[in-house]
Amino acid sequence: MFPEHRMRRLRSGKIKDLVRETSLSVNDLIYPVFVNETINSACEVSSMPGVCNIPVTKIADDAKEAADLGIPAMILFGIPENKDEQGSSAWGDDDVVQRAVREIKNELGRDMLVITDVCLCEYTSHGHCGVVDHETGEILNDPTLPLIAKTAVSHARAGADIVAPSGMMDGMIAAIRSELDENNFNNIPIMSYAAKYSSSFYGPFRDAAGSGCCFGDRSTHQMDPANSDEAIMETALDIEEGADIIMVKPALPYLDIIYRLKTEFRMPTAAYNVSGEYAMIKAAAQNGWLDEKKVMYESLLSIKRAGADMILTYFAKDMARMLK
Ligand code: PBG
Q: How far apart are CA 124 and CA 126, in angstroms?
């Protein structure tokens, strides 16, 4: 009761540092990168100021810059030269992501953890995350599973440290786990995009990766933004199937989901601060409407406070510089 209690007593100077409950460290950051086979020099994504598509030949330099800033991990998205119905440039040993992984590993070895996004949407001509039945327009779940499983194995063979399936196909974690194990990659962890919502915040990513759908959308396999209990079920299934790290995506509009999953499962939990969340802050800052650095810090701190152990964010390098 006031006046015995005065909350402001703990809100000044060093006391504030002592009682702070959440902290943000460079070790929490995962840097997402678009590696593009069709370009020769870095090319900025117009809806994501400061984020570039990077050619395979320059990827090791970019990774080195991140490593020098102390960033422990990056996640790769590939943009291939050729797209087809099945997305077959997702799983070749000399395709874009596989080459990029080798470049980074040759340069940095254990100094950079390489995570690969495992999905077909950047590789299919129709932009969907799986095999499509053209008569019905349906994205076929079961025929997609062996394709993503072999994609994951090809990433591991190239040297990826973690594979991160993002396609939201039912049974994908089990399919990948068994294919990895069969190929002697039983020590490669799976980071599952467990609660991935059918979100409009992915717009700029689809510009960056050229992965927009030419018909339909992803709402038949990604989660309904209205649902929260469903995220528990989705995630429980992924954990049973062998997920080592669970992810919530997007992050800021879904802080309640991060909190619920962390509380429910006590698993290593990642949150993806997606392209649209990044673009909003950048655009407001460019207009002089928000203080970019402060808003970036507060946003990432909030994601940690909600329960995330790690954050995939396009702000990774900026945040690392600020923390230095
Ligand atoms: C699918 C994938 C997407 C993102 C990451 N992996 C796009 C989608 O589901 O359409 C979006 C990430 C972002 O918006 O930053 N491979």
A: 5
Residue 310 dihedral angles phi and psi, to the nearest 5°: -150, 155
Q: Is 262 a catalytic residue?
A: no
Distance 19 CA to ligand 1 centre (A): 37
Ligand 1 proximity of 202 Cβ (cutoff 6 Å): yes
Whether 187 has a pLDDT exceeding 90, the answer reads: yes
pLDDT digits 0-9 by tens, 190-245: 999 999 999 999 999 998 888 888 788 889 899 999 999 999 999 999 999 999 99
Q: Distance between CA 193 and CA 71 in Å, rounded?
A: 21
Q: Which two tokens stand for residue 204?
A: 């700029």
Distance 202 CA to ligand 1 centre (A): 6
Distance separating alpha carbons of residues 115 and 109, to the nearest angstrom: 13
Task: Please tell me the distance between residue 13's alpha carbon and the centre of ligand 1 in angstroms.
Answer: 41
List domains and CATH numbers for the chain.
22-323 (3.20.20.70)
Nearest to 190 by CA among 234, 149, 137, 219: 149
d(CA 68, CA 62): 10
Report the share of the chain in percent with pLDDT over 90. 95
Nearest-atom number in ligand 1 for the CA of 312 is 15
pTM over 0.85: yes
Q: What helix, strand, coil percent values describe the chain, rounded to 5?
A: 45, 20, 35
In degrees, to the nearest 5, what angle opens at C-alpha 282 toward C-alphas 273 and 313? 20
Q: How confident is the model over 88-118, as pLDDT tens digits?
A: 999 999 999 999 999 999 999 999 999 999 9
pLDDT at 133 over 90: yes
Task: From the candidates 249, 282, 304, 317, give the one annotated as an active-site residue.
Answer: 249
74, 80, 86, 90 alpha-carbon torsion, rounded to 10°: -40
Is 205 touching ligand 1 by the criterion CB < 6 Å?
A: yes
Is there a contact between 69 and 108 (Cβ–Cβ < 8 Å)?
no
Cis peptide before 32 (omega within 30 of 0): no
